[in-house]
# Entry
Amino acid sequence: MSENITSCPYKKKCSGCQLSNLDYPSQLSYKQTRIIKLMGRFCHIDEIKGMDCPYHYRNKMQAAFFKKNGKLTSGIYQSVTGRITETDNCLIEDKLSNEISLHCRKLFESFKMKPYNEETKSGFVRHMLIRRGFATNEIMLVIVTAEGKFPSVRSFVNALINKFPDIKTIVRNINDTELFLSLGEKSEILYGDGYIEDILCGKKFRISPRSFYQINPVQTEFLYSKAMELADLKPSDVVIDAYCGTGTIGLIAAEKVKKVIGVELNQSAIDDAKKNAELNNIANEEFFCDDAGKFMVALAQKGEKADVVFTDPPRAGCSREFLQSLVKLSPDRIVYISCNPETLARDMQYLLHKGYRAEKIQPVDMFPHTRHVESVVCLTRK
Ligand code: SAH
# Structure
């Protein structure tokens, strides 16, 4: 039987896929219409790039553990209700990661590890993060627990890696906070190097537990290739990669240009970005750990110039401070990659009023079955 989100058995209880009542073609036209409504007045909107197979596309899964009918089980945390929906097979999660998580249910039980109870603050296992590099097949497991001794850690690790040899690293993280599904300050590597590698657009990337890494590699390759095409990079260009994460976009651009400057707030992502530059023998990119807005202000004050700025902010979009300094830096081309059409529309409006123009926006369906839409647009100086 071919897979179909409209018949997902969990859709009534799980709020992860907000568009699960629509078949895939209808979801795409819904998203296209939304982008046209928000930004059709600015420029042409290209047809949204959908997926040939919009299932099991996520390279990252998060399973929360809890007790049901006296037994340990796992599922998807619902941010709206604060509850966990038990799921054995989610249609958008990676199949192998899902198998690992189901196996962990059994292992935790046999190693007598109890699920953590938020109310009584007792128990041990809180949740698990699994990432799989789709290109390399390397798997990282982050087991998030409460404080306390991890029982029979060697036997536990051996049991897992013997069954799933693609697991390259297992990290234990201790979350002693009230925050659900988050990582705590303390970590210990139980197996491997504490990170995995993946390949994107022909470049190698190191991913560690805290770093941001796009969750849909198939669509990300399309998105980043489109971003490069729109940027129309030249060997003499000085490029800024703002909100650079582990350096993906800038490192893909680096070999085509004179110099790249990457800026990002998260220190662990910057550490990965520096390693990623080394891994790919890229010597013409420098990375800075800073707030992108503050960094741009300092650059503008110093009278620095950039030819191209890639900006890939989180859902809140670019800060006003960032945009003001961006306009002062006055790059020829701004390639804006956005995961939130509302903030993209707001920021585009600002840039269009400040002497930039846009020809077209390319929407990309990075998150099939959810209401989220990614877009990329190039703004050029008039
Ligand atoms: N371009 C990267 C990451 C994009 S996600 C990629 O494609 O993989 C957005 C990134 O912005 C995250 O890595 C997040 O840590 C970072 N970020 C969030 N707020 C920021 C800020 N104020 N200044 C700089 N970076 C920020």
